[in-house]
Amino acid sequence: MAYNFRLFPLCFLLFVLLVNNNNNVILCQEGSGTRSALVPAMFIFGDSLIDNGNNNNLASLAKANYLPYGIDFNGGPTGRFSNGLTMVDVIAELLGLPLTPPYSQASGDQMRFGINYASAAAGILDNTGRNFVGRIPFNQQITNFESTLNQLRNTGAGDVEEALAKSIFFVGMGSNDYLNNYLMPNYNTKNQYNPQDYATLLTQQYNQQLTRLYNLGARKFVIGGVGLMGCIPSILAQSQNGACSEEVNQLVLPFHNNVRSMLTSLNSNLPGFRFSYIDIRNMFQDLLANSRQYGKSIYY
């Protein structure tokens, strides 16, 4: 299977450098086959962009376990908010890992290669996404990871701490804290915080959450930034001419900038903390501005 990396010029180079830090190749066994993997496991935290089924059995309005979702996925709909593979699925394959199972379904040896804790409608703040009823906020996702660690230790899965230090922790949070919190008319958030203060609130909470993962043994982080929120379908649908909302794009910009500064600070203050930041905002801007170079046409 071929992948087009033109959307990932710099960040993917950083990503490769990150995972090859120890110059080790770990052999992972899946079924009867053996293949090389760059890391022992990948643990995933996030929202609908990378959820692969954790909301399926929740009393939630944020589900994707039905057609046309999964129309190009082998086996049909799984709970991925995609026609096929998600970004983290592709990364898992590139790392030589099996597709990461959702926390709600993972068991036994599957856990040794990592777990996906992401949940559609989830946010950095616990009250984000409540309009969708059931969802698993980032704080609870980390608690679920703690439960996984206890299971791994109880099953005698080798040196868990050493494996964690070499594993990838992919985190993509923040979009819903705007789309399904700050911008929701039935939330009072917009009246409580101006854009800069809200970005500060989110970043402070995000900092605590990433530090919590670090204290649990995580060392190698891949952080997905928020994209151009003003260009997503739900925002475009509110525009009379179908154009992106520059107001929403500017609203999210302080958080975008804060996260980059936060990661630099964590890298300086936490021994062994390493990160690769995926600048989805600028990637998306490049795609919109140069769509034909990617073999695509963008219509508004």
UniProtKB/TrEMBL annotation:
Keyword Signal on this protein?
A: yes
| UniProt lineage | Eukaryota, Viridiplantae, Streptophyta, Embryophyta, Tracheophyta
Query: Per the UniProt entry, what species is this protein from, by scientific name?
Result: Solanum stoloniferum
Can you say what this protein is called? Zinc finger protein
GO function term, MF aspect, one: hydrolase activity
A Pfam family that this protein carries is: Lipase_GDSL
This protein's major location comes to secreted
Where does the record place it? Secreted
Q: What are its GO cellular component terms?
A: extracellular region
> Which keywords accompany this UniProt record?
Hydrolase, Lipid degradation, Lipid metabolism, Secreted, Signal
Q: Which GO terms describe its biological process?
A: lipid catabolic process
Q: Which domain of life is it from?
A: Eukaryota
Task: Report whether Secreted shows up as a keyword of the record.
Answer: yes
**What is stated as this protein's family in its record?**
Belongs to the 'GDSL' lipolytic enzyme family.
Query: Where does the UniProt annotation place the signal sequence?
Result: 1-21
